[in-house]
# Entry
Amino acid sequence: MLCPMNESELVPMVIEPPPFTGSIPDDGIDHQLPDPTSHDGPASASGVRSVIGIDVGGSGIKAASVDPVTGSLISERIRITTPTPATPDAVIGTIVEVVERVMDGEGAAHLDADAPVGLTLPAVVRNGTVSTAANIDPGWIGVDAVDVIGRALRRPVVVVNDADAAGVAEMRVGAGRGDDGPAVAGVVLMLTLGTGIGSALFVDGTLVPNTELGHLPLHGGDAERYAASSVRKAERLSMKSYAQRLQEYLELVERLLWPDLILIGGGISKRADEFLPLIDLRTPILPARLRNQAGIVGAAMLAAEGGSGS
# Structure
């Protein structure tokens, strides 16, 4: 049974650990930036001016400094390829690298020395502990991610499911906000199409965490093995063929949830005009506005307020 988020599930932790001694490579800067706004004053009710958001994906680990109110990135977005295998030690080392680069960049002027970090993982995360590992190394299962990442970064850390973070961003400052008003009422489903299929479910703006609807059964296996964007690339599907697969998956979740709105995010959302017109559902469907930056933004927003997803 799906239950609304308990605020205790995403609790930041301040830890005083030994310093990280790894090195930082010279490549991996992504210069795709939204237009910044002014960030001279406090950006949240907690007084946080800006926050570091990190999105750990199956192919890349991305980070930036974020205004937690507007959702604007106020530093360049740093990207480093996700290590293979994506073990906790390897991924945490890369997380430290991307944070160091953000702190060395232009956005550092808006970051306090102990600025909190919001971080996503492609996994079920409960009370800071990783419970699944479909698109990350199995060594993560049972790891207290808040503890080990907080020790490496020496900062307050909030860790959340990647699709949940993306959904929070879209509901607050993206396509789920409605016409410049509050979040869309009713049942809203955000799907991220990438290495797998992530899902974030909202009921009247409140997040139902860790839904993992990419693992619904379809054609004898997990749906994401049939309709994720990575499958489209691996099998060299045309957009028309991919849209047919996505149609099957969307009909499945539509019958299960009867949502009032479906949002499509992930990197492929920038090509939404090529496949969404081919989808025929009774549910309205829109592309995400924040595209592949939604995870960074949502994680930062949650970190700024201590982890609440509602």
About this structure: Helices lie at 88-104, 145-153, 162-173, 224-227, 229-234, 239-257, 272-275, 294-304. Residues 7-165+293-304 form a domain with the Nucleotidyltransferase; domain 5 fold (CATH 3.30.420.40).
